[in-house]
């Protein structure tokens, strides 16, 4: 539809979710939030989807919450109340999510980048936790951003609201890679292809594993991890992967080229 702000397509096992509201720098308006959440739910429930790509049109990835809609609203009516669901959909998606940034991200937009499993940006992309400069707190996004960022950098950037570039975003853990614009699509495609080679259930379980609290010592976690590992070795997916390896073929879950 011409008036939709989020586009959803599926090709070769990859669901591409595109933010398309360049008139307000892809700000998280009520309509965009609603459509983005629906697209993420479609990707989660569609068995044909193996990997998700989150991208955008226009020069800005996402400017954060739509401040025009926030004016004059009480705390119970703020659009930010709907944002936890989106961050959780990204973070807990059983299918890996790759963020493709051809431009800047601010505030809530950075929260979404951090919630993705892999994020790639061009050198021209800039970032800022601008909340304190308008008298608000980066509370919600802290739940996805802080697990990614180095502690010293988080204190500096959350408190100052200063703009930083994509190269520093890689250094502090927000991005996986910063590549020239002409290499952006190739680099993202490489990540998407690599992710699509993993078993769907194995990928979902590994994502969950990465989010678990670490045991105090390895010995405290061996029993639970052994049960998880042995279960997957014996599972239908694990057995198919083992057969495919022995027969020098692709497992059945790998999308056709």
TrEMBL record:
The protein's name in its UniProt record: Enoyl-CoA hydratase
Matches recorded under Pfam families: ECH_1
Source organism of this protein record: Amycolatopsis panacis
Annotated GO MF terms: catalytic activity
InterPro entries hit by this protein: ClpP/crotonase-like_dom_sf, Enoyl-CoA_hydra/iso, Enoyl-CoA_hydra_C, Enoyl-CoA_Hydratase/Isomerase
TM stretches of this protein: none
Family: Belongs to the enoyl-CoA hydratase/isomerase family.
Gene3D superfamilies registered for this protein in UniProt: 2-enoyl-CoA Hydratase, Chain A, domain 1 (3.90.226.10), Lyase 2-enoyl-coa Hydratase, Chain A, domain 2 (1.10.12.10)
């Amino acid at each position: 539809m011409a008036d939709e702000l989020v586009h959803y397509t599926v090709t070769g096992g990859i669901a591409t979710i595109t933010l398309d509201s360049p008139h307000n720098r892809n700000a998280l308006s009520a309509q965009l939030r609603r459509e983005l959440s629906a697209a993420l739910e479609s990707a989660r429930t569609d068995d044909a989807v193996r990997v998700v790509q989150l991208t955008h049109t226009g020069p800005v990835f996402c400017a954060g919450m739509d401040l025009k809609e926030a004016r004059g609203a009480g705390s119970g009516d703020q659009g930010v109340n709907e944002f936890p669901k989106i961050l959780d959909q990204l973070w807990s998606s059983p299918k890996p999510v790759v963020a493709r940034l051809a431009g800047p991200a601010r505030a809530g937009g950075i929260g979404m980048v951090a919630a993705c499993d892999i994020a790639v940006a061009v050198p021209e992309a800039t970032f800022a936790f601008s909340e304190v400069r308008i008298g608000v707190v980066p509370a919600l996004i802290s739940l996805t951003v802080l697990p990614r960022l180095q502690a010293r950098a988080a204190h500096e950037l959350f408190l100052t609201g200063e703009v930083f570039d994509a190269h520093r975003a890689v250094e502090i853990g927000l991005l996986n890679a910063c590549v020239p614009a002409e290499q952006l699509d190739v680099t993202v495609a490489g990540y998407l292809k690599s992710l699509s080679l993993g078993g769907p259930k194995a990928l979902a379980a590994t994502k969950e594993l990465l989010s678990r609290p670490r045991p105090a010592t390895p010995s405290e976690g061996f029993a639970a991890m052994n049960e998880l590992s042995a279960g997957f070795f014996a599972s239908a997916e694990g057995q198919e992967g083992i057969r495919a390896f022995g027969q020098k073929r692709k497992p059945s879950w790998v999308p056709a080229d």
